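LOG
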Amino acid sequence: MSKRNLLWTLGIVVAIAAMATAVWMSRNPRPTATLPDGTRITFLKATYGRHHLYTEWRFQWAWPPIQREVHQINTPTDALRLWVRMENNQPLHFLPMDCTVAVTADGRFCPGYMDTRGWRRRPWGRFDAIRGLGYEGLAADGSQVELRFYDPNSSSNQSPASLRVRLPKAPVLNLVKQPEPLPAERSGKLLKVRLNGFRWVYHRWKPAGAVPTNEEVIHACPDWQLTLPAGSLDEWEVAYIHFAPLGAGPVFPMINRVFGASPQSIAMAVVGSWRAPIYSFYVQFLHTPTGKRESFEFYVSPPPVEQLRQREQLEAQSRKALQRGNYAHAVQVWENAPTEFALQARYWRGYVYVLQGDYARATEEFQRAAGLLRTVSSQYDQEYEVRPALALCLLLMGRRADAAQVARDFTAQVAQHRECLWEIELLANALCLMMPEVAPPPQRVDERTRAWVQLARQRRNQAYAEMAQRTRAIQAALQRDYKRASRLFPSSPRIYNSDYDPLLLALLYKQAGNLELARFYHDEARSFLLQQRGNRGYLNGILLLRILFPSPAPPSGTLLPDGRAGTQGGLPRQFRPADDGALRHHPARGATVR
């Protein structure tokens, strides 16, 4: 066969192949959506596994006229990827640079992000890009889902484009048919994990912005026991963790990545569809001295969503009753509550008794609630932290020895944990200021200060550096150097880094003899706490305010047990507030503080 005949034959084959492809595409159209700016998005395929490939054949003005291009993505574990093509005929500088993509699965959004900076020029002035998209908590379960594309810079809440696609089914779903019963154990070479269950933190909030997000957030705090054949548990950190439907693979590192968290304080967001029958709880531990890693995976039940919603409804009813001054109803809310809500019932009943001034009954409730807690560093325990409240109530009752014992145990736990919220550490510092006998030894405070400084350097976070300054200020106050303590304590002329900052600053300036600034920060703390009365997390601030600045009569704006408004006549003259406005003038800096 001559070369001319060979070229003709090859051309005919290519033409027939092109026609067959066109006919097949017309009979099997791919899902397509168009954005308001004209960008055309076509769904290509879905892949599941560790190695994701998409192969395309492209026409080009060169030899050979048909070119094969392979797009590849590798993931450390089995994961789902959705391949799409983006096309646009606009000039390159008008093309979108990014796009937020959300998948709706069982009424919940699984967010994703698409970076479209890799536009390629094609024939006839066309630009396109191939992307393999990953989503937070989207499971490869064979279901049909809707992809919605949003412009993150748009102010509209409407979805500009959407398309429906069918997901593949992960092979692991054929192997694991039901959740495993808890407690369950896993053993590694260096570590043994016994998972007893989870404690759940539930929050409901109103999202804002152009891209819709989930209004409900659940965090899972594992209740587990870690045993070692040798060494200390302090040498281990959680390097990676996720709680997602089985078949979803790992979540995005930027969303659920944990840096240097201790196993006692770990908590992870529950992502994906809450109707999934089986969830994968995957955790990887890092042995910091050697760099060795241990990984474990458990197949567990989904979170008890309806139970958590019921708990939130009871708390909302109790909170509103407290804000209205209806103490009887706030207690009645928890009379027939399920036994699973024992901690919450004790917490809120104690809250009511504190506002009524009945510290004996509040102490009884907090003592029983403290027995249901585990550690000061757990996010679940920090939601209902009653141990400082118990110590403060005992102090208000005149039982200083009992209060010191409770405070000593609490401050010792805070000092030994690496990961605690700033508010928890500030509460421990406040207890030390009121009861110097419970303060840890100076070398322990120095270790804590160095730990905050090290965290600030590692994570490049100014907030950690300010926490180290707080620790130094408290150390100076324990040495009765209140002027130095007030100078060291960080404060901003417009915003506070902690809800307890104004209260502690008022105490430090009062001890230092600066009554003008003491009155200013006292007014700030008092006005804020009156506005937050009944909200979870401000119980200890109310108790601190009563101890640090006692008055025979309740301050203006507070409610007496019978619902009557109090007066401010009982406040010491040097700390009587001028008004209860949200904005005040800082006497020293000349700045307005919100």
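LOG (cont.) second protein
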Amino acid sequence: MPFRVLTYLVLCLFLTVSCSVNKFIPEGEHLLKDVKIVSNTNASNSSKARSYVRQTPNAKWFSLVKVPLYTYALSGRDTTKWHNRVLQRMGEAPVIYSAEMAERSRYNIQQMLVNDGYLHATVDFECEKDDKKKRAVAKYYLHERERYYVSEIKLNTDDERLKNIIEANSEESSLAPGMPFSVDGMEQERRRITNILRNSGYYRFQKDYISFTADTAHHSNKVKLSMDIAMYKSSSTAEPEEHIEYKIGNVYFVSGAGLRFDDTTLTGCDTIVHGMYTILCKDNPIVRPSVLVENAYIIPGELYSQNNFDKTYNSFAQLTALKYTSIRMVERPDTALLDCYIMFERNKRRSIGFEIEGTNTSGDLGAAASATFSDKNLFKGSELLSLRLFGAYEAVSNLSGYTGDSYFEYGAELSLRLLGGIASVFVPAEKRKMLSSTLFALKLNSQERPEFERRILSGSWSYLWSKRVDTQHKLDLLDLNYIYVPWISETFKNEYLDSVSNRNSILKYNYENLLITKLGYTYSFNSSRNKSNRFERFAYSVRTNAECSGNLLYGINSLFGGRTNEEGQYTLLKIAYAQYVKGDFDFAARVNMDTRNSLVFHFGLGIAYPYGNSRILPFEKRYFAGGANGMRGWTVRTLGPGSYKNEGKSIDFINQSGDIKLDMNVEYRSHLFWKIHSAVFLDAGNIWTIREYDEQPGGQFKITSFYKELALSYGLGVRVDFDLFVFRLDAAMKAINPAYTGKEKYSIICPNFKRDFALHFAIGYPF
């Protein structure tokens, strides 16, 4: 079909659907076509004002086409017919212009400007209507005029104790002379002072006790602020008095009595006294008393602290033996004491879970399954024991000269998580400042391929801690990996390992027995974990990792003159060990343009350097490019390093790996309908080697030319978001392929669908 005819057909379809929208618009009413906000003073105010508009037009896919509206328009008015109901449920009903909502929006925008320091701002409104097409465009014109600034700030209160606390923390104030006069700034200051006082024993203090008075001088844009702290009133008729400073009285742990607190809650409870704490049980104790005490940051005799209250909630939330937790603070009559009741219910101790998934590695299809047994309270200390058994099968293609065509993988993983850790044992004070846990893990993995058999035995000891909900630290104190290769196919050995004409040192090194002793640290931050940031227009995450291996063993061998093997490597129990240093940085940011559209950026950089006892980085630590979470124009392990090109070898995944990785991605995500989302994406990046290897021509990183070897791909994705998990299908095309030269390199100009197309199915978002 000629392109011109196709264009006409698409245009006619849109015109037909657009006209059919009118049947859902009542007579005399108008479809809200667009909302325009104009500011001649500050463009950022126009952007900010959009969130104050009460009525917005129908949503657009990728901010371009109102597909949900057109889908709704394809339906009929008779909702007794199932196809009409389905189309209306999938689509979006027309947004009918409302003069009342427009006036509310105008008022909200004007108040926004006033609250932001434009005290004499006004907003004009105009509605352009097309009665013939039944369309309306709402226009808001912002007139900010002069902005006002704070000239001085004065604190007024008759409660000297509160005044001293506030002045002692004045350096952290969000208000300062010279800053724009802002209601948001004053509200932020109210919250800050309230937090300080509630963490200083003032349990009853609320931000409503804080008020501001603004004095604007005549013929000036300066504002004098007075911050007034009202005295405490126990009731509307009571006399004002100083605010009460509360201390913690008794702390009770209540088990098996439900989460509601009333006169009958504690009836029939058995009592156990543990130091300064009391445990009330209606059934057998769930965990040891010491575990409850160690996770309670609310301490008898200390001043009440809202931070300690919140920390206790978070600490009890990580106790896997408990299902629900509730904390009640009860005032003792005629005293300044608060009794604390920490109430909790028992969780199901043991559970078994199963997982089944399909796999697709470079076109080789297979299946994987796992079964996990968990015990959430192994030693009555809320320890989490987990045993996972797993297995996988994959049909291996493009192999000749081998006895089999299947890949099997199976193994087991045993892990034990204990609350607390090094800081809790050696630095007792730290126990009251952060949530921590220690993780021990043991894993056995067996891989059986037509080319070789491989066993990996791993053992690790890690320490995890966090002081904030959005931040987490992990220290790998000991991570041992023993890689054992019991069998290698003669065909594989002759063609790739021992052949003089095709000898591959990189490949050979990774099919020898090897010991990896790792020490590492990981830091991660995610702003979305913080509830206060959950609905912000901007969210981001950062993850960094640093690790090293073999340095201690190498130092000991060098100092005491240890023996080396035929390759000149030091060994431990006749097994060579790897020595390297590795660092990774990963950043992702999401900008929410509206409720249905967002722009996501991702940047990833990794560098690993083998030295000392290793000339080549172990395969498990090398980087690869291509796949569902990186360069989606390539299948897994088929890109790079640099301008290296696979010359049709059936086994080349070792050569297509490197020591440096760079990933840059941008996605425009849009909610289509129901749980269906879509994305348009652009990926750029590659991998490189630090050293030059004969087996990887063109793969070495060079600062003067690496940018010429950046690969580029683009594509379209569809996602089904079920909240708990996401099914994702991404279709991508290569745009720039550094493995080629000339016109072939720029695939976007001369695309070859068979060569340049890649399809990926995955679970979860790529970043």
